[in-house]
UniProtKB/TrEMBL annotation:
Descriptive protein name: Acyl-CoA N-acyltransferase
Residues in coiled coil: none
Keywords: Acyltransferase, Transferase
Domain of life: Eukaryota
Organism of this sequence: Artemisia annua (Sweet wormwood)
InterPro entries given in the database record: Acyl_CoA_acyltransferase, GNAT_dom, Plant_NAT
Length: 414
C-alpha cells in the first residue's frame, strides 16, 4: 500500500492510495459510469470493465492502479465519510525506441538491431464530473509518475482522442508531455454476412513459437515493439497469429519461411478484447437506432447481397483488436486485406460487434485496411521523459525522433 498524499479541498482531504479490489470495486465502477468518453456531450462511449477495474493493465509486466478518495471529517460526533472521486492506471514494459547497426568483422553488411527502453503508459484516468477543476487529475498523474521513476521507467506516454481538449491540455500544459505520434484507429463493424477472401491467398495459423520467431526476426526494430512479445502471443486472450501466403506456397515452419519467404505475404495477430471489457454507444436518437436495426435485419435476411450493416453498438458489445500487422512485397496491402477479411469472419464467429486496429500515420495500411470513417478516429500519443540523467545511447532523446513507417501496438493497452 502506498503512503497517503493529501490536499485540502474546502475542509475535505483528498487521499491518493493504491486500489483495493476487496473494497473499492463498486465505488470505482460508479465513477467510471459517470464519466463520458466522446467527442461531444450527446453521443458517448461507455466502457463496461466486467467487474475488474484493472483488467486493462492486468496482462502487463508491471502495473498499478491508484484511486483518489475524498475524506470528510464532520466533527462533533459526525461520522467520517469517504468517497472515491478519481482513479488512474499505469503499466511499465520494455519496448523498441530506435535502431542501431551491428558491426560485423567478416565483411557482411551491418544488420539493424533494436534499441530498447523502459517505457510507462498511463491509461484510464478518470475524475468524477462533480469533482473536476480541483487538480485531482494532476495529483493522480504526478503520483503515478513517481511509481514509474521508482521502477526505472525512462519515458511515460499517454494516448487520447485528438479532439479531447481537456485531456490534451492536462498532459501537455500541466504535466510536461509533448505531442509525439498521431496513429489512426481504424474500426469496422462486424456484418451479419461473411467477407470474401481471395482464392489465390491461403491463410495459415502459426503456433506461438513460430509467431515469436517471425516477429523477432522481422519486426523487432519497429517502434514500440514489446521485448516480451512471447508473453503476448502465449496469453489466453491471443486468438492466434495468421499469415497470408500465395496459394502455391507450402508452409513448412517459420525457419524455412524466414530463410526463403515468398515475394508477397502479410501477418496479423488477433486479441480478444471482448473478454476484457465491453463498449456501448449511448446518446443516439431512436431514428438512428431504428435505421441500424433495419440494416441488420436486411443483412441477415439476404446475406448473399452483402449489404453493409451496423451491429448492436447501442447495447454492450465486444471487439477484437488486430495487431502486429506487417508484411512484404508489391501485393502486401492486398494480402493484408485478405487477413482483415479472415479476422472479420473470426469476429463474427465470436459474436463481436467490431474489429479494430491502430496504424501509424505513415503506414500504407491506413488507406488499405477497410474501415468506417464515422467509427474511426485519430489518436494522439503524448510522451514525457521522466529523468534527464539517463544515457542517450545510440538513439538520443526519443521525444525528438521522427515517426517511422509503422508502430507496433500492444493489445494489452487497448
Amino acid at each position: 500500500m502506498m503512503a497517503d498524499d493529501s490536499g485540502n479541498n474546502g475542509g475535505a482531504i483528498v487521499v491518493l492510495r493504491e486500489y483495493n479490489p476487496k473494497t473499492d470495486g463498486e465505488r470505482v465502477e460508479q465513477v467510471e459510469n459517470s464519466c463520458e468518453v466522446g467527442a461531444n456531450g450527446e453521443v458517448s462511449i461507455y466502457t463496461d470493465l466486467l467487474g475488474d477495474p484493472i483488467c486493462r493493465v492486468r496482462n502487463s509486466p508491471a502495473y498499478l492502479m491508484l484511486v483518489a478518495e475524498m475524506v470528510k471529517n464532520g466533527g462533533d460526533g459526525v461520522e467520517e465519510t469517504k468517497e472515491i472521486v478519481g482513479m488512474i492506471r499505469g503499466c511499465i514494459k520494455t519496448v523498441t525506441c530506435g535502431t542501431k547497426f551491428s558491426r560485423n568483422k567478416s565483411g557482411e553488411p551491418p544488420k539493424p538491431l533494436p534499441v530498447y527502453t523502459k517505457v510507462a503508459y498511463i491509461l484510464g484516468l478518470r475524475v468524477s464530473p462533480s469533482h473536476r477543476r480541483m487538480k485531482i487529475g494532476l495529483k493522480l498523474v504526478c503520483r503515478m509518475e513517481e511509481w514509474f521513476r521508482d521502477n526505472g521507467a525512462e519515458y511515460s506516454y499517454i494516448a487520447t482522442d485528438d479532439e479531447n481538449e481537456p485531456s490534451v491540455s492536462l498532459f501537455t500544459e500541466k504535466c510536461g508531455y509533448s505531442k509525439f505520434r498521431n496513429p489512426s484507429v481504424l474500426v469496422h463493424p462486424v456484418f451479419a454476412h461473411r467477407l470474401p477472401i481471395s482464392k489465390r491467398i491461403n491463410v495459415v495459423k502459426l503456433t506461438p513459437s513460430e509467431a515469436e520467431s517471425l516477429y523477432r526476426s522481422r519486426f523487432a526494430t519497429t517502434e514500440f515493439f514489446p521485448r516480451d512479445i512471447d508473453s503476448i502471443l502465449n496469453n489466453i486472450l491471443n486468438l492466434g497469429t495468421f499469415l497470408a501466403l500465395p496459394k502455391w506456397y507450402v508452409w513448412a515452419g517459420s525457419d524455412e519461411f524466414l530463410s526463403d519467404p515468398p515475394e508477397n505475404w502479410a501477418v496479423m495477430s488477433v486479441w480478444n478484447s471482448k473478454d476484457v471489457f465491453k463498449l456501448e454507444v449511448k446518446g443516439v436518437s431512436k431514428l438512428m437506432r431504428g435505421l441500424a436495426k433495419t440494416t441488420r435485419v436486411l443483412d441477415r435476411a439476404f446475406p448473399f447481397l452483402k449489404l453493409p450493416s451496423l451491429p448492436k453498438i447501442f447495447c454492450p458489445f465486444g471487439l477484437h483488436m488486430l495487431y502486429g500487422l506487417g508484411g512484404s512485397g508489391p501485393l502486401y496491402t492486398k494480402y493484408s486485406k485478405a487477413l482483415f477479411g479472415f479476422a472479420h469472419n473470426l469476429a463474427k464467429k465470436y459474436k463481436c460487434g467490431v474489429v479494430a486496429t491502430e496504424v501509424s500515420s505513415e503506414d500504407p495500411l491506413k488507406l488499405a485496411i477497410p474501415h468506417w470513417k464515422k467509427l474511426s478516429f485519430t489518436d494522439l500519443w503524448c510522451i514525457k521523459r521522466l529523468g534527464e540523467d539517463y544515457s542517450d545511447g545510440s538513439v538520443g532523446d526519443w521525444r525528438k525522433s521522427h515517426p517511422g513507417l509503422s508502430i507496433f501496438v500492444d493489445p494489452r493497452e487497448v
